[in-house]
Specification:
One of its GO terms (biological process) is proteolysis involved in protein catabolic process. Keywords: Hydrolase, Metal-binding, Metalloprotease, Protease, Signal, Zinc. 65% of the residues lie in helices and 3% in strands. With 482 residues, it is mainly alpha-helical. The protein has a domain of 247 residues.
């Protein structure tokens, strides 16, 4: 379901670690019971899979703006889900196939192909609402659960195998055969009952969140028509989400009695799509394509079209042209955090640091919850060599976002700029720890201890964290042996 083009070596290794299928038959999938995975265990599994994806998956899209938009949209939907407090995290995969997938622990991946294929924000929201419902109803946990004797590491390996095998790739099939995990294949696709339940709850979620409920059926019907026309990019999602005539009829029946309402797309929806188009191919080609769309007025929102052209110019390092287009987009009177961030970055790139940083501060004051602005501002401070200011800002943000790996990486960069080696490696230790590389984190702390420039309180912090991580490493080794 994930990794639609190939299976990375780390996934092959994980799959080969799974014991033979005969020793761990999947249970019948039914109602949630006390024998299912606990939510805490499910979150641990999801966290470890996500660490592997961030660390090793080349198609993971580490883009501040795209991720911020997905989490804003997903968070809006999650607030009306069956479990608003579950704690969801959305991320993007740079893949042209039309796909989305839910992982254990509330991690939901969205292919860029889906973002570009959706013809309205309600259609995109319909797919996300469906995936959210798979999580809240514990569908993934019930697929993963083996027995209480299987350790977390084996479950993580199985989770990785499920995700890879859902891609239907030849490598995945070979890996599963080698690992003798044939029993997994019987439940790669969600059951029809699971699909109908997620359709129903997703439909309700859409309406409560203020979207057009018809978006779900419209998108799935178009997806089915695409398959009939042999558009292979459309098949990835349907392999794991069987779309029957009965399902479509159920969706359409739910629409009966709904009054007509036109739900406008947000500007952010169009901005993200323009950004994705502008980041494709060579910068010069992106400029040519985005300029043609603007000249021919082939756009749903002019501000987004100009933003896309500005970003293409930014990639091409044509700063004056980028500033001209982004300022024109801002001048259309539709405020958005993405517009302000690119305007600030263009100015910083031109050496106008004071002006760019001022734009960032004003935007953060207006959109305080936007993570793209937070990370972008920290980057801009570092690029402007304002290391002390960057450190103060990052520390303020970490007070409420202690597990934000980007902030810890930026903290390390700020300390490096200040020549503070011990604290630089103390920050890098947290980066390694959050990536699931406990041994690497311990090594960074050992380097920090030898640096010789930490004061008493800093050294105490380093030693305390070292003790915690060594205990954690012992638990990991014990789990691996079992």
């Amino acid at each position: 379901m994930l990794l639609t083009r190939r299976l990375p070596a780390f996934l092959l290794a994980a799959l080969l670690a799974v014991p033979p299928a005969g020793a761990q038959n999947l249970p019948e999938l039914g109602e949630v019971s006390s024998d299912d995975l606990s939510v805490l265990t499910e979150k641990r599994i999801g966290q470890q899979i996500m660490q592997e994806i961030r660390l090793r998956e080349a198609s993971y899209l580490d883009d501040y703006d795209v991720e911020a938009y997905l989490n804003q949209l997903g968070g809006r939907l999650a607030g009306f889900s069956q479990d608003p407090g579950f704690g969801f995290e959305f991320f993007a995969i740079n893949d042209p196939s039309i796909n989305a997938f839910a992982m254990p622990g509330g991690y939901i991946g969205v292919h860029t192909g889906l973002l570009l294929a959706a013809q309205s924000e309600s259609e995109l929201a319909g797919v996300l609402a469906h995936e959210l419902s798979h999580v809240t109803q514990r569908h993934i946990a019930r697929q993963l659960f083996q027995s209480k004797r299987i350790g977390i590491a084996s479950m993580v390996a199985m989770g990785l195998g499920l995700l890879a095998a859902r891609s239907n790739s030849q490598a995945a099939s070979a890996a599963i055969a080698t690992a003798q995990a044939g029993a997994i294949s019987a439940q790669l696709a969600y059951s029809r009952d699971f699909e109908r339940e997620s359709d129903r709850l997703g439909f309700e979620m859409l309406g409560k969140a203020g979207f057009d409920e018809r978006g779900m059926a419209l998108f799935f019907e178009r997806l089915r028509q695409s398959v009939r026309l042999y558009e292979n990019n459309a098949t990835a999602y349907l392999r794991t989400h069987p779309l029957t005539t009965e399902r479509l009829s159920d969706m359409q029946n739910r629409e009966q009695g709904l009054g007509y309402r036109q739900v406008p797309d947000s500007l952010e929806f169009h901005l993200v799509r323009a950004r994705l188009r502008a980041m494709q191919g060579r910068p010069a080609d992106a400029v040519k394509e985005m300029a043609a769309q603007l000249a021919e007025r082939k756009f749903a929102a002019e501000a987004a079209a100009r933003y896309g052209l500005a970003y293409a110019y930014f990639r091409a390092r044509d700063w004056p042209a980028a500033q001209r287009e982004i300022d024109a987009a801002r001048g259309l009177g539709q405020p958005a955090a993405m517009l302000e961030r690119l305007a600030a970055d263009v100015r910083v790139a031109q050496g106008k640091a004071d002006e760019g940083l001022r734009l960032y501060r004003e935007a953060i004051a207006r959109y305080p919850l936007n993570k793209a602005l937070v990370h972008g501002y920290a980057d801009a401070l570092l690029e402007s060599r304002r290391f002390r200011e960057a450190l103060r800002f990052v520390d303020q943000q970490l007070a409420s976002s202690a597990t934000d790996i980007r902030l810890h990486r930026q903290r390390g960069a700020a300390y490096a700029g200040l020549g503070r080696q011990a604290m630089q490696h103390r920050a890098l230790a947290e980066v390694f720890a959050l990536q699931g590389q406990t041994a690497g984190a311990i090594e960074q702390l050992e380097i920090a201890r030898r640096a010789g420039d930490a004061d008493f309180y800093e050294m105490s912090s380093i030693d305390a964290r070292m003790r915690e991580l060594k205990l954690q490493r012992l638990e990991e080794l014990k789990e691996k042996r079992n």
